[in-house]
Amino acid sequence: MDRRNFLKKAGVGVAASTVFGPVFAQTAPSIRWRLASSFPKSLDTIFGAADVLADRVSQLTDGKFQIRTFPAGEIVPGLQVLDAVQQGTVEIGHTASYYFVGKAQVLAYDAAVPFGLTARQQNAWMYYGGGLELFRPIFADFNVINFPGGNTGAQMGGWFRKEINSTADLKGIKMRIPGPGGVVMSRLGVVPQVLAGGDIYPALERGTIDATEWVGPYDDEKLGFYKIAKYYYYPGFWEPGPQLSFYVNLNEWKKLPKSYQQAFEVAAAEANLTMLAKYDKVNPEALQRLLKNGVRLRKFPNEILKAGQKAAFDWYEEEAAKDATYKKVYTAWRKFRDDEYKAFAVYELGYEQFAFPNVG
Ligand code: CA
Question: What spacing in Å lies between the alpha carbon of 345 and ligand 1's midpoint?
Answer without folding.
Answer: 25
